[in-house]
Specification:
Elements: E1 4-12, E2 18-27, E3 32-36, H1 43-51, E4 58-63, E5 66-67, E6 78-82, H2 93-115, H3 119-141, H4 156-169, E7 174-178, H5 186-203, E8 206-211, H6 214-220, E9 223-228, E10 231-236, H7 238-243, H8 248-253, E11 260-267, E12 270-273, E13 276-279, E14 287-293, E15 298-301, E16 307-316, E17 321-328, E18 331-337, E19 347-352, E20 358-361, E21 367-368
Parallel strand pairs: 3-8, 3-9, 6-7, 7-8
Antiparallel strand pairs: 1-2, 1-4, 4-5, 9-10, 11-12, 11-14, 12-13, 14-20, 15-19, 16-17, 16-19, 17-18, 20-21
Helix pairs in contact: 2-3, 2-4, 3-4
Bound molecules: adenosine-5'-diphosphate.
């Protein structure tokens, strides 16, 4: 069983940077977990510790039922796909795919030669098996016609497929992906995303995937691990992270356009702020809070009432319209509606159903569960 368990996993780089701070996470056999967060939050370092490419400063890493803190990378039964592809430029695609397998085979047969008179036949059988694995991987990824080319003769997407293929032929228990699609253009990223999802379905392997792209994370992961400053902020399925973010950081990181926020105070069921008032009923406790609402849950009224602001710009995007509204000094909201004829300079009212409001603690930023 290829479960991966991180217990209080910590990385302090020489020089004292605490890149990963006591991360605990249990990845189930066959699960697809995405580590997501802004650049520098410690996602890659976490993954590299799982891979065995980075020494572990503290905590415990278990793969299957074996503690792996000190186990060399090659003995961990994992395969990693990097953003940089890391292909051998002087080898053909076929050789790139077979390289790791050939090396393992050569190692085994040199041992066998000493003890087994029949090693030639076994070596031939292994050679056939390697060709079959390459054939299967190439067919899965649609790169059969590229096997004799060198990486320099491939597009970015094709190179990435080869990099995935190289992981695939090893038939590992665990796949690790470090921003594998970041070098591809937007359209290809979406295509490759679907392919990686298919690969997960087809192999049933355990997968850990690092990205800074929240949309990629939302679409790929069974579960997201949202990180900031080396610390896990929330670990939950994508829909849960979206609907019930643990705190203001997660709320603003997940979802495009980003969530709207407004500081104010709740008194007797009314939220009062610099931009006006909102009736919130009994949902939130009295006192200082920060309200949050997704752009597509706000409606625009022609007259100022409740909350109001000045339209700064209206962006017509074909299937939708984003209206940017200034509510107060340093507070701007995005309102996403199917269509709007609001124009820059208009004063508009903003309406929100109380059930679409989230509230966050004014100081800690933790989400306040509605009553
Ligand atoms: P992410 O993958 O989320 O972008 P990283 O795990 O690469 O973040 O980096 C986390 C933190 O550790 C950053 O502050 C980064 O500058 C630091 N860091 C990464 N690699 C090294 C290194 N080899 N030596 C020192 N600090 C590093």
């Amino acid at each position: 069983m290829a479960r991966v368990a991180l217990e209080q996993l910590t990385k302090i780089y020489p020089g004292g940077v605490k890149a990963v701070d006591a991360v605990s996470l249990d990845v189930a056999h066959g699960e697809f977990v995405v580590l997501v967060g802004p650049s520098g939050c410690g996602k890659s370092t976490t993954l590299r510790m799982v891979a065995g490419l980075e020494e572990i400063s503290g905590g415990t890493l278990t793969i299957g039922d074996r503690v792996c803190n000190e186990v060399p990378a090659r003995d961990r039964d994992i395969a990693m796909v990097f953003q940089s592809y890391a292909l051998y430029p002087h080898l053909t695609v076929e050789k790139n795919l077979s390289f790791g397998l050939e090396r393992r085979r050569a190692h085994r047969s040199s041992l066998r030669r000493m003890v087994d008179g029949d090693y030639r036949a076994k070596a031939r059988a292994e050679e056939t098996e390697i060709r079959e694995k390459i054939g299967t991987a190439a067919a899965t990824l649609g790169i059969e016609q590229l096997l004799q080319r060198k990486p320099g003769e491939l597009s970015g997407g094709q190179r990435q497929r080869v990099a995935v293929g190289r992981a695939l032929v090893r038939e590992p228990e665990v796949f690790l992906f470090d921003e594998p699609l970041s070098n591809l253009d937007a359209k290809l990223r979406v295509e490759m995303r679907a392919e990686i999802k298919d690969l997960h379905r087809a192999t049933g392997a355990t997968m850990m995937y690092v990205t800074h792209d929240q949309e990629e994370a939302m679409t790929l992961g069974d579960r997201l691990v949202v990180m900031s400053d080396g610390v896990v902020q929330q670990c939950a399925p994508p829909a849960e992270v979206y609907a019930r973010p643990a705190n203001r950081f997660v709320a603003s990181f997940v979802g495009t356009p980003t969530m709207n926020f407004l500081e104010g105070r709740v008194e007797a069921g009314t939220f009062r702020s610099a931009a006006g008032v909102l009736e919130v009923g009994e949902r939130f406790p009295a006192g200082a809070i920060v309200l949050g609402v997704r752009p597509d849950r706000v409606r625009i009224a022609q007259e100022a009432a409740g909350l109001s602001g000045n339209v700064r710009i209206t962006e017509h995007l074909g299937d939708r319209t984003d209206v940017r509204v200034d509510l107060a000094e340093d507070v701007a909201w995005t309102v996403r509606v199917p269509e709007s004829n609001a124009e820059a300079g208009d004063v508009v009212g903003l309406q929100v159903d109380p059930s679409d409001l989230l509230a966050f603690h004014a100081e800690t930023g933790a989400r306040i569960e509605p009553m």
